[in-house]
Amino acid sequence: MATAPPSPPYEPDPFDLGIYTPNNLARGARAALLRDSSPAEITDIGLSPPRGRTAQTPSSPLTRMCNAANAEGQQLDKFPALPTTATQEQRLPIDITHAATQLIDAQAAVYNAKLRVFRTFCAHFNEAAKEFATGPERDFAKHFSTSFLGFWEQTLANTSPASTPTYSGIAANGTASPANPRPKPAATHHQAQGSPVPAPSREDLRVFVRLEADAPARNHIGYAIRAHVASKTGLELNRIPQVLQVNTGWAIRAADKATRDLLIERQAEWADDLGATAVETSQKWYNYVVDNCPRRLTDLYGNEVDYDAAVRDEVNNQTGHTPVSIRVPRRDNEQLPNKTLIISLLEPTKRPWSLFGTSRVARHIERTNPPKQCENCWDYHTRHACNRQTRCKRCGKTNHASDSCTAPEQCANCLGPHAADLAACPARPKRAHGLLHRLPKEQRALIRQMGSRLFQQQQAAQQRQQSQTELNGQPAPEAVAEQQRAPVAVIPAIVVSDTPEGRGTQARSAGETPLADIA
User: Fold this and answer.
1) Which residues in the chain land under pLDDT 50?
2) Which segments carry the region annotation Disordered (predicted)?
3) Torsions phi, psi of 391, nearest 5?
4) Cα separation, 83 vs 169, whole angstroms
C-alpha cells in the first residue's frame, strides 16, 4: 500500500486581511513584485522621514493592524496577573488577646516595682523626718516632703516634666533640620511712628498684705517674705515669683490665678506671723460722686433711720450693684442741709442714676494719677526701685539733706532755677491719650541745656544786684529789671501732639515760650 507524501507545514498567508481582504487580490503577482524590494519600516502615520534619509514604504492596512497588535501586547504586559479565585488565601479573624495580655503583665510588673520602691522610701523618709519636729527645720522638712510627693505623683502617672534643653541635644536635633531653613518673615508694624505701644491687658495676680506703719515685717526683704509664705503653704518658690514693698505693706505676685486663690484661702497659716491687718486681692473700684444728697433721712413719723443702710439699699435698687464703699469727701461742711457722697462699685453702671429722687445724677470719677516722683533722687520713678545717690530737693546736689540746704534752687531734672518737685517742671512726664510718657532723651537734653542757661542768667543777675547794693546801698534799676526778666527766659516749648497724624510725645519749636508756662 502506497503511503501519502507528508504535507508541507502550514504557513499563514501574509496577505490575509480577514474581512478586509479584497476579492480580486492577486497574491502571486503581489509576492513577485515585493520579492526584491527593501523591507518596510513601521513608523507613525503623518510623520515625515528625517532629513538625509530615503522615504519608507507608506503605511498599509496590514501595517496598522501590526502596530495595533504590538501596542495591545505592550499594554497587557504592564498589568500583573490577577489572582484567580482558586489561589486566594483565606482571611483569618484578627486576634490580639495574647499580645495584649503580655503587654498588661509587663506594665503591671513595672508599676508594682515602682510601688515597692515608693513604699520603701516613704518608710525611711518618715523615720528621718522625726528628727525635725519644731522650728524652721520642721517647715523645711514639710516643704521637702511636699516636693517628694509631687515627684512620685509624676513618676507613678508616667508623666515627666519638660526637660531643660542641653547643648548636645540641640546639636543632635540640629542635624535633622534642613541646612538652609527658610527665614521667618519679619513682623509688619502698622503703628504710626512715635505712638506709644499699649501694654497687653492681663489679670492682676497680686495679693496685698496690709501692715501697720511700725510693723516689724516692713523691715524684712522680699526674699524672706517669699520663703516664709512658700514654706507655710507648701508651694514652690517659682509659684511666687516676686514680692514687692508698697505703701500699705507688701504685694505678693502669684504665678497664676490658682496660686493667688490658694494664698487667700490659706492666709491664716502665714499672715499672722507677719502681723498683717488684712490680706486681699487687687480690685478695681468704679467711683461715682453724687451731689445734693440729704444729710439725714427720717421715716413717716419723723424717726431718723440708719443712713448708711438706706444709702446702700438705694444704690442697689438704682444700679443693681452693691456698693463696696460709701463715704463723704474730706472737706464736708456739716452746716449745710445737703452733702456729697462718693459711692464705689465693683462694676460700672450702664445708665444714669441718682439717690432718693433729690440728688443730682451720679458722675463717674476719672482718676488721673500724677507721675510718681522718687523722693531719693527726685527722678520720675517709684521709690522702692531706686538705688541711686540721695539728692537734695532744693539744689539737686548730693551729700547733704534738703532741710539744711541754703544753696540756690536748681532742679535735679531740668537744671532750672526751681525745686525738683515743681509741678510745672518742663522735664515732667507728659500725659497723652490718658497715659503718662517720659520725654525722649533728645528733649530732656534740650530742656536741661535751656534750664542750665536760665539758672546761670538768674545767678548772674543776682550777683550784679548784690554788688550794686553793696556799692550804693540800694539796687540799681537796671539790675532789678534784668532780674525780673530772667525768670521768663525762653526755651523751645515741648508740645504734646494729640492728633492722629502725630500721636505720642513730640518736640517742636513753638516760638518763644516762658519756662514757667511749660507743663
Assistant:
1) 1, 52-58, 75-79, 81-82, 84, 86-88, 160-161, 175-181, 185-201, 486-519
2) 167-200, 457-519
3) -115, 155
4) 51
List the one residue out of 484, 495, 418 whose CA is nearest residue 451. Answer: 418
Distance CA 404, CA 172 (A): 68
3-state secondary structure 204-261: CCEEEEECCCCCHHHHCCHHHHHHHHHHHHCCCHHHCCEEEEECCEEEEECCCHHHHH
Core vs surface per residue 217-253: b (16+ CB within 10 A) or e: beeeebeebbbbbbbbbbbeeebbeebebeeebbbbb
386: number of CA atoms within 13 Å, CB side?
17
Exposure string over 417-450, b if 16+ CB within 10 A, otherwise e: bbbbbbeebbbbbbbbeeebebbeeebbebbbeb
CA dist., res. 374 & res. 377, Å (int) = 6
Q: Are strands 242-246 and 278-281 parallel, antiparallel or unpaired?
A: unpaired
Helix and strand tally (H, E) in the chain? 11, 14
Of 324, 213, 217, 228, nearest in space to 267 by CA:
228
Task: Give, rounded to a whole angstrom, the gap between the first and last alpha carbons of the chain.
Answer: 147
pLDDT score for 124: 82
- For 145, phi and psi rounded to 5 degrees? -65, -35
Residue 288: its pLDDT value, please?
94
Give burial (CB, 10 Å; 0-12/13-18/19+) of 174: exposed
CATH 3.30.70, applies to 286-364:
yes
pLDDT for position 5: 55
Q: What is the pLDDT of residue 498?
A: 43
Task: Extract the C-alpha cell encoding 164.
Answer: 531643660
Q: Are 194 and 506 a contacting pair, CB within 8 Å?
A: yes
CA 453 to chain centre: 45
Contact 186, 213 (CB under 8 A): no
d(CA 204, CA 185): 33
What tens digit of pLDDT does each residue of 468-482 get?
A: 877 776 555 555 555
Helix axes 135-156, 97-129, angle to 10 degrees: 180
